[in-house]
Amino acid sequence: MAAYFLAAVDINDVKGFQKYSEVGFASMEGIKFEVVSIDDNPLLLEGKLPGHHIVILKFDTKEDIKKWYDSAAYAKAKPFRHASCDTAFFVALDEFKG
Q1: Which residue range forms the structural domain that includes residue 77?
Q2: pLDDT (0 to 100) of residue 96
């Protein structure tokens, strides 16, 4: 079952966030995923966004997301993220049966 990694990010330091993005995406080498959306201007229909930079990535399973997120390669990216932005990360499963 497909799983989606969603991130809502408020960037406080653009250069630091660029470094995080470079190291973060490099940490995904060899991992099967698809970029669904990266949007700096999402259309808010209602409520309050937890961040204004939205990222949606599709993985085969939630276990694949956890494997990447808990990896030593991604651990190298986390300090850059913590120093440059505020984030809300979450996972949603493709369970809709229509």
Answers
A1: 3-43+50-93
A2: 72
Q: Tell me, what's the pLDDT at 97?
A: 63
CB 2 within 8 A of CB 63: no
Q: Average pLDDT of the chain?
A: 94
3-class DSSP state of 8: strand
Task: Give the pTM.
Answer: 0.90
Please tell me the total count of domains within the chain: 1
What's the CATH code of the domain at 75?
A: 3.30.70.100
Closest by CA to 23, choosing from 91, 86, 74, 68, is: 74
Q: Is residue 71 part of a domain?
A: yes
Residue 1 DSSP label: -
Integer CA distances (angstroms), 88 to 5, 30, 40, 96, in order: 11, 25, 15, 23
